[in-house]
Amino acid sequence: MIVSVYFILIVLAILLATVFSAFSDLTKNPYITFFIIAFGFSVFFFLVHGISKYFEYDSDGLKVVVMNRGLLFGDQVNYREHKAEFDKEELLGYKFNNYVIYKTLTLLLKDHRGHSKKERFNVTLVAKKKRRYIRQSLSKIVKNNRKQKVHD
Which of 5, 16, 86, 129 has the smallest count of CB within 10 Å of its CB? Predict the structure, then answer.
């Protein structure tokens, strides 16, 4: 999906370059028109680039692994990777936040000193069905942790 958005952005840039005279109604100065178009294109490009992240969730075994990674340049340049690997007993809670065009998963984890910390992950591109499975898995882990805490 994101690759197609980038493709549309490139086609849009080429289209705007060829139909540049159509934007002469904005201003008589072609440089100002160019900068307005370039600014709008840049804002949209960086918005899509910021939202487009690959999400991975694995709760098999004793540890839970949650990871975000950039879709483009993910293998070569790893500057956008955010990973949390923790024991299931460390999970205190979770929350899915649904903003207009951005969705996040916030995990509340217990660190080695007993303090809690929050980890946020971008789940915008995760399908609704998969988010439901993740919610079920996390609920089960939190429920088991609460049972263990009561028994201890």
Answer: 129
